[in-house]
């Protein structure tokens, strides 16, 4: 299925493939703009001329057709809102013309290319869409349209079939692929198919009976449309010769046609009946035999055909949608070939040998050709007709068919040959990419994908055929995206090494690289025999030696390469002489002479004796000199392939490696993830029944909602969710609240809630009755008291203090119930608080269940974990897996080994308490020696005394017991001697409650010791950590990457969990969301998963996919969360934000269903006060060209705008000069190039100035998602085209980062026309587009937000004026601060003196895809080191205590916890 069989020239220069962008000046002077101003421009609504169809014809003829569908012209038309304001509002079935239809088609296709919402345009007049769709279909089959037009129609049709979630589209598209399309089948074939399926036969007969001849005639056109489209395709395909020139329009049409066929086959609703029609037309066979397949310009066509053949023969039952196993496929193959043998035996004597042979002897292509090739054409026709494959002769209706010998032979052979198992091919595939794949543009397209053409890549659509299909598509895309990233890393590292040809013909390295080292020795040391039934070696190991003559910290990085880290072995044989400069703008391979790339996996570094240095608690031995040797595992599949090639007298790959390259740990998990996906495909994936269809995209979208689940729970303890009774009532506005107590003073939380409608539903289900449709909205509230836990402050219950809104409470309720919970959390709506409360409530309601927490980033996971620790959750039940644990802002260690040490230290602490209790009771003996002896002590001494106490103070005969009796009889008073006035002596109930609380405190000591008893029996730290993970922990947290990396290890350990909660779900890749569902083995074939809670926001930015082809064409950026929302699964949309001022919130809240403001945003003082020094809390500032230059692009996608950079930095300096703290200001931009330019300006203007310094952060909008600051300065950069800010998700993130002030710097004339951004920019443009300042104010002001500053405004008309004003203002401030004047910069540098640099390395197009440079890494490491030193100083007293505890642990011979502890945990 991978588009990998045909290779292009590796050395070819990659095409940039970038759509040209017209300038604003060109737009304003353009004919299109003039027409727009007259007829449809949104800002000219009052002066518009009436609709004139001639305008449509003229624009289509001159601007689209005559320009040969130029992207530049189409972009301008689409951007001018041509379809929204002119084409569709004026479309009617009566006035339709080909130009009008094609104009709409081209505009919608452009919207899809630009990745902006496309179908919204049609919703203004949906009643006309059926007529438009019919006209579109007629145009597809018409000969009046050119090939270019017909190709556009195919693209539009494909978009329709891939947008079946839209009701408007689905109603029209489904008519083309229903059972009635089988009228196109050959009669005998149709009869055979209906005979095999009685249900469909019944439906077919009812269709025939219901319809009158007139109705049938009217419907016939739709039913035969796809069949007729295929016939048209065949006629076109047959016109292509095997040599000579051919129109590229023909080739593109054929490619787009196959793409349409693939997408129809890859969705169950469209393939169910269509697959049979496709097979009956023998489309795959016809294409295989076509001349286009053999042509050089037919490579993409061949790759698409390979994909189509894969899906046409996919392992699925088209009727039921059930996956077919290898056994099922083998049976189908056997039945097909035995039916052929029977036919041959009965009717074709010439095939007697074939008929009598066993299947294994005749089901290969060679054997079938041997038997069938000698047959005459007439005989082959009879056989094919007997099998209902072709008619016996051609007539007027089927003259498009082929009945020649070559076709019939290929048809019979291809249908009956044995197919290799998909799984077997996958298991034999090397997981590391090689040079043939890495630089093959057909397989891994260039980053600059314009979206105009099609590619032979799998797509992540709404639906998938089976779980196998789901995993396979994700496997291929993840592998290719990883390959693309590896290509970038290899090009960067090898270029830095500067390999040149030395005078003796060898290789001389003229540079150095942090991530790569020249190899001075390579030896394959072991090739193990293959396992039984396999061809590849079981294991291949090699030793790689490098010379680490580098800085100490870099040497340390190489020496700390961990087991299973992936590295790459590179062979270069450069032809360039010494001193030749390597540039990233030229093809890479010829410059460096790269020949081979092979992956390997680190086993370990060797010591001086040649033994592997194992990871462990002991310090690693210090090795002498700079020579280091690493033992590596090679890919066994790749080694077998290479040795087979080497045996054919080719060069031995493994004799010429001269570079070893490593990758950053965070980006180097690809092999482990691919192995995990492959492993899942080799095992039976058991997804819960209630979730299976939703993941594949079928069935009722609401089936997994808690209200539809059969096991919905009627009574739930909401614990500390509600602050009081009024809060509870406000949380259920649509419910009638009933209370189970008559005493108002008892109406205090916690509350148990019983939902009466759930009880009614449950009773109906028990009686096999239909539950009533109308739900009973009654909630019965029962307050209950949490039992006293002891007399110490640490025993008090931690309580929630957040007044959750009604929507948040609904999300919490849904999360506590079984089923799928989808929570959409807009910015600042308390997603994390809701998640934490759900986890806490599940923990208390279902104490035996275990909950898995998964997030995208370590930062989010740590925020979640810190909030969980603040709630009433016992910390011994918390476990944090992965490498980000050290970033937790606590001195406690929640990693596996940290928890083991905690348990061991806690055990000693508890045993000391037992000893104190023993002494207080005067019990002889050593009862506090082990957990076991402590257990006996509790049973025979503690419990016995407590029962005796109860018998004295709780009389069953109703006698009154004196209050003092409790204090006198309580047996454990001496143990609680450190509690002053333990008993109050005021009432019996109060003292009895205290006594019971004290006993619970004691009982908990022994309960914990009983749980810790296993740690006495397990000897090693590794075994103890496994026990902790599998048995003790109740809340386990990890990132999605860690889950993918460690799945096999977790499953092998017997890891179990009942609930999953995922935060940041919309930022997690589809496959990385799916893997955590399968981290446990099913019990008796069923998954024990009960709840899946996903919290995210699909209106913010998706996962970062660096390669535009995978991001746009394959839709790889679509998260599972987004896909499920698109499917229509019910969501809980949080509707109260508590981050931004209401005025700033209005800039993005239009994107959500109903997003309001929480009370503190309206009432808190900081939100009521104005931003000092500014007239407005948000403003859009227009930035004109500076020295005639707006945006610049020194290298592809490295966009910069010097005027905006200077303006932003000047505004930042102004804010600092009037007292704003630097940590409260962040500068954001939409492009990596601008980020670098702003940093350069800051470094020159103010970084080293003690009065100003650097802002908190300068980064891209994409990198800042999930973070916030009080004041945001935002640069939009572009002046020629809007660029990727047209993605509304990026706009939402950009507008929602600021709490108090947002100042946007942009070219207003460009952005005001953008349809997608109009709701935000309409508000921004309602205020002046020049910066209004009040320099007389200082931070902080007491001026109310709705009041203007005193005095006249300082108006910044443009950037030079702002820069000059800030300089003068700065000098004035310096004169006031004489002590700093000597160090201040006196010489004024004019704005614009900073030169935007051209990057000397590759810069990705995606603003979230750039890794930090080595300089930025060093800077961040320095800052992190200083923060770490400060934290260590702050925590020194706590660490001393912890050290003392550790010493206590280590001195206990039986409980030393130092075994098997690794130095580092696995990186996420």
Silhouette: globular
Radius of gyration: 36 Å
So how many helices?
A: 58
Oligomer: single chain
Structural class: alpha/beta
Task: Note down, in words, how this protein is organized.
- With 1468 residues, the chain is an alpha/beta fold.
- The strands form seven sheets. It has a seven-stranded parallel beta sheet with strand order 15-16-14-17-18-13-19. A six-stranded antiparallel barrel has the order 3-4-7-6-5-8.
- α31 packs across α44 and α38 (896-921) packs across α58.
- It is globular, with a radius of gyration of 36 Å.
Topology of this structure?
Layout: H1 24-29, H2 31-39, H3 53-65, H4 71-79, H5 82-87, H6 98-114, H7 129-141, H8 147-161, H9 167-173, H10 187-196, H11 198-210, H12 213-223, H13 225-237, H14 248-265, H15 268-281, H16 283-288, H17 291-294, H18 299-312, H19 326-347, H20 352-356, H21 359-362, H22 365-372, H23 377-386, H24 405-416, H25 422-427, H26 435-438, H27 467-497, E1 499-501, E2 507-509, E3 516-527, E4 540-547, H28 552-559, E5 566-572, H29 588-592, E6 594-605, E7 627-634, H30 636-646, E8 659-662, H31 670-682, H32 689-696, E9 715-717, H33 725-731, E10 736-739, E11 751-755, H34 756-766, E12 778-783, H35 806-816, E13 819-824, H36 831-845, E14 851-855, H37 858-869, E15 878-880, H38 896-921, H39 931-953, H40 963-969, H41 988-1012, H42 1014-1017, H43 1021-1032, E16 1035-1039, H44 1040-1053, E17 1059-1062, H45 1070-1074, E18 1091-1096, H46 1108-1113, H47 1120-1126, E19 1132-1133, E20 1136-1137, H48 1142-1145, E21 1156-1157, H49 1159-1163, H50 1165-1168, E22 1178-1182, H51 1202-1217, E23 1225-1229, H52 1232-1245, E24 1257-1260, E25 1269-1275, H53 1288-1295, E26 1298-1306, H54 1308-1311, ...
Parallel strand pairs: 10-12, 13-18, 13-19, 14-16, 14-17, 15-16, 17-18, 20-21, 22-26, 23-24, 23-25, 25-26
Antiparallel strand pairs: 1-2, 3-4, 3-8, 4-7, 5-6, 5-8, 6-7, 9-11, 11-12, 27-28
Helix pairs in contact: 3-6, 4-6, 6-7, 6-8, 7-8, 8-14, 14-18, 22-24, 23-24, 27-31, 31-44, 35-36, 36-37, 38-41, 38-43, 38-58, 39-41, 40-41, 51-52, 51-56
């Amino acid at each position: 299925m991978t588009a990998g069989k045909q290779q292009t020239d590796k050395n070819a220069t990659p095409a940039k493939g970038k759509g040209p962008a017209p300038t604003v000046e060109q737009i304003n002077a353009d004919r299109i703009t003039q027409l727009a101003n007259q007829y449809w421009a949104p800002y000219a609504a009052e002066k518009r001329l009436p609709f004139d169809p001639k305008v449509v014809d003229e624009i289509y003829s001159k601007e689209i057709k005559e320009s040969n569908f130029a992207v530049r012209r189409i972009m301008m038309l689409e951007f001018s809102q041509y379809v929204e304001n002119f084409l569709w509002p004026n479309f009617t079935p009566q006035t339709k013309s080909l130009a009008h239809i094609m104009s709409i088609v081209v505009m919608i296709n452009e919207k899809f290319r630009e990745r902006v919402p496309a179908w919204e345009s049609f919703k203004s007049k949906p009643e006309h869409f059926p007529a438009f769709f019919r006209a579109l279909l007629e145009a597809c089959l018409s000969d009046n349209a050119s090939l270019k037009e017909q190709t556009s129609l195919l693209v539009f049709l494909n978009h329709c079939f891939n947008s079946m979630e839209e009701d408007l589209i689905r109603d029209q598209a489904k008519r083309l692929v229903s059972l009635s399309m089988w009228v196109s089948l050959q009669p005998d074939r149709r009869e055979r198919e209906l005979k095999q399926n009685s249900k469909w036969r019944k439906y077919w007969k009812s269709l025939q009976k219901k319809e009158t001849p007139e109705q049938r005639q009217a419907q016939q056109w739709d039913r035969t449309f796809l069949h007729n489209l295929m016939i048209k395709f065949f006629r076109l395909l047959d016109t292509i010769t095997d040599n000579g020139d051919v129109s590229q329009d023909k080739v593109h049409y054929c490619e787009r046609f196959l793409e349409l066929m693939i997408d129809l086959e890859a969705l169950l609703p469209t393939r169910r009946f269509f697959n049979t029609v496709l097979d009956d037309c023998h489309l795959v066979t016809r294409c295989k035999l076509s001349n286009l397949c053999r042509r050089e310009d037919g490579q993409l066509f061949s790759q698409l055909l390979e994909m189509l053949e894969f899906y046409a023969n996919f392992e699925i039952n088209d009727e039921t949608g059930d996956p077919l196993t290898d056994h099922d496929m083998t049976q189908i193959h056997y039945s097909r070939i035995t039916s052929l043998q029977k036919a041959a035996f009965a009717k074709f004597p010439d095939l007697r040998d074939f008929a009598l042979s066993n299947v294994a002897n005749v089901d290969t292509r060679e054997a079938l050709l041997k038997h069938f090739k000698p047959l005459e054409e007439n005989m082959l026709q009879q056989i094919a007709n007997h099998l209902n494959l072709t008619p016996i002769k051609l007539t007027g209706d089927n003259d498009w068919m082929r009945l020649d010998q070559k076709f019939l032979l290929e048809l019979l052979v291809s249908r009956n040959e044995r197919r290799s198992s998909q799984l077997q091919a996958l298991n034999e595939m090397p997981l590391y990419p090689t040079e043939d794949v890495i630089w093959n543009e057909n397989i891994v397209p260039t980053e600059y994908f314009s979206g105009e053409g099609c590619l032979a890549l799998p797509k992540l659509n709404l639906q998938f055929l089976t779980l196998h299909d789901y995993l396979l598509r994700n496997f291929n895309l993840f592998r290719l995206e990883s390959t693309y990233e590896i290509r970038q890393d290899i090009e960067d590292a090898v270029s830095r090494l500067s390999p040149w040809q030395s005078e003796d013909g060898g290789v001389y390295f003229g540079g150095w690289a942090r991530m790569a080292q020249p190899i001075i020795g390579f030896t394959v040391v072991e090739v193990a025999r293959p396992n039984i039934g396999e061809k590849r070696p079981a294991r291949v190991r090699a030793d790689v030696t490098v010379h680490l003559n580098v800085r100490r910290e870099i040497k340390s990085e190489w020496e700390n390469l961990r087991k299973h880290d992936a590295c790459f072995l590179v062979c270069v044989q450069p032809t360039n002489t010494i001193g030749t400069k390597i540039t990233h703008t030229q093809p890479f391979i010829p410059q460096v002479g790269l020949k081979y790339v092979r992956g390997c996996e680190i086993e370990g570094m060797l010591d001086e004796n040649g033994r592997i240095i194992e990871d462990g608690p002991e310090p690693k031995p210090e090795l002498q000199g700079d020579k280091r040797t690493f033992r590596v595992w090679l890919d066994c599949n790749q080694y077998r392939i290479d040795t087979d090639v080497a045996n054919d007298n080719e060069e031995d790959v493994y004799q010429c490696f001269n570079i070893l390259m490593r990758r950053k740990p965070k980006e180097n998990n690809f092999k482990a993830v691919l192995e995990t996906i492959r492993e899942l495909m080799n095992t039976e994936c058991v997804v819960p029944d209630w979730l299976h269809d939703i993941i594949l995209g079928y069935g009722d979208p609401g089936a997994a909602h808690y209200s539809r689940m059969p096991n919905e729970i009627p009574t739930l303890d909401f614990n500390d969710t509600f602050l009081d009774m009024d809060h509870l009532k406000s949380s259920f506005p649509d419910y009638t609240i009933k209370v189970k107590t008559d005493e108002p003073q008892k109406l205090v939380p916690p509350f148990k809630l019983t939902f009466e409608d759930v009880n009614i539903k449950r009773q109906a289900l028990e009686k096999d009755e239909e539950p009533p449709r109308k739900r009973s909205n009654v909630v019965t509230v029962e307050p209950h008291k949490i039992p006293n836990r002891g007399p110490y402050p640490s025993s008090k219950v931690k309580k929630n203090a957040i007044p959750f809104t009604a929507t948040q409470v609904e999300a919490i309720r849904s999360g506590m119930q079984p089923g799928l919970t989808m929570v959409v959390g807009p910015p600042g709506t308390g997603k994390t608080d809701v998640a934490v409360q759900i986890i806490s409530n599940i923990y208390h309601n279902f104490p035996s269940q275990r909950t898995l927490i998964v997030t995208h980033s370590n930062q989010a996971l740590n925020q979640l974990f810190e909030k969980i620790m603040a709630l009433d959750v016992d910390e011994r039940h918390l476990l944090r897996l992965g490498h980000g644990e050290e970033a937790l802002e606590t001195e406690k260690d929640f990693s596996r080994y940290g928890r083991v040490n905690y348990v061991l230290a806690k055990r000693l602490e508890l045993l000391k308490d037992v000893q104190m209790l023993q002494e207080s009771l005067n019990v002889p003996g050593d009862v506090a020696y082990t957990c076991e002896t402590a257990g006996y002590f509790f049973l025979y001494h503690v419990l016995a005394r407590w029962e005796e106490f109860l018998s004295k103070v709780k009389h069953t005969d109703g006698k009154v017991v004196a209050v003092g009796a409790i204090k006198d009889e309580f047996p454990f008073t001496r143990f609680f001697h450190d509690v002053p006035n333990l008993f109050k002596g005021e009432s019996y109930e109060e003292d009895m409650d205290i006594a019971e609380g004290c006993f619970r405190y004691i009982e908990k000591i022994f309960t914990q010791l009983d749980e810790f008893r296993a740690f006495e029996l397990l000897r090693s730290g590794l075994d103890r950590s496994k026990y902790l993970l599998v048995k003790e922990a109740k809340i386990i947290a990890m990132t999605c990457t860690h889950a993918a990396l460690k799945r096999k290890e977790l499953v092998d350990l017997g890891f179990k969990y009942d609930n999953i909660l995922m935060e940041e779900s919309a930022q997690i890749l589809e496959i990385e969301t799916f893997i955590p569902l399968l981290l446990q083995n099913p019990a008796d074939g069923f998954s024990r998963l009960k709840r899946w809670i996903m919290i995210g926001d699909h209106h913010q930015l998706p996962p970062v996919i660096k390669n535009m082809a995978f991001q746009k064409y394959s839709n790889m950026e679509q998260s599972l969360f987004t896909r499920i929302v698109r499917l229509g699964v019910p969501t809980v949309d949080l509707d109260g934000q508590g981050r931004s001022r209401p005025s700033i919130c209005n800039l993005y809240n239009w994107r959500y269903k109903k997003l309001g403001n929480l009370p503190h945003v309206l009432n808190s003082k900081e939100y009521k006060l104005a931003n000092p020094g500014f007239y407005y809390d948000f403003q859009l500032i227009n930035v004109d060209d500076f020295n005639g230059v707006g945006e610049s692009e020194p290298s592809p996608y490295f966009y910069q705008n010097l005027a905006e950079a200077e303006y932003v930095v000047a505004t930042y300096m102004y804010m600092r000069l009037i007292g704003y703290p630097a940590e409260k200001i962040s500068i954001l931009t939409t492009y990596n190039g601008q980020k670098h330019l702003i940093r350069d300006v800051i470094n020159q203007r103010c970084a080293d100035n003690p009065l100003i310094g650097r802002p908190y952060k300068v980064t891209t909008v994409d990198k800042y998602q999930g973070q916030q600051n009080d004041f945001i300065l935002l640069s939009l950069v572009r002046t020629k085209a809007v660029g990727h800010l047209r993605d509304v998700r990026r706009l939402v993130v950009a507008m929602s980062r600021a709490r108090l002030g947002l100042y946007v710097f942009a070219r207003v004339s460009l952005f005001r026309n953008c349809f997608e951004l109009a709701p935000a920019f309409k508000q921004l443009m309602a205020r002046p587009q020049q910066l209004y300042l009040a320099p007389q104010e200082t931070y902080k002001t007491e001026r109310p937000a709705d009041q203007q500053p005193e005095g006249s405004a300082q108006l910044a008309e443009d950037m030079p004026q702002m820069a000059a004003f800030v300089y003068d203002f700065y000098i004035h401030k310096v004169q006031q601060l004489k002590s700093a004047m000597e160090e201040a910069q006196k010489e004024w540098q004019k704005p614009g003196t900073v030169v935007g640099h051209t990057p000397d390395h590759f810069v990705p197009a995606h603003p979230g895809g750039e890794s930090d440079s080595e300089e930025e890494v060093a800077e961040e490491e320095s800052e992190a080191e200083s923060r770490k030193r400060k934290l260590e100083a702050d925590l020194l007293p706590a660490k001393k205590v912890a050290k003392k505890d550790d010493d206590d642990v280590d001195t206990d011979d039986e409980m030393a916890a130092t075994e098997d502890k690794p130095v580092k945990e696995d990186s996420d």
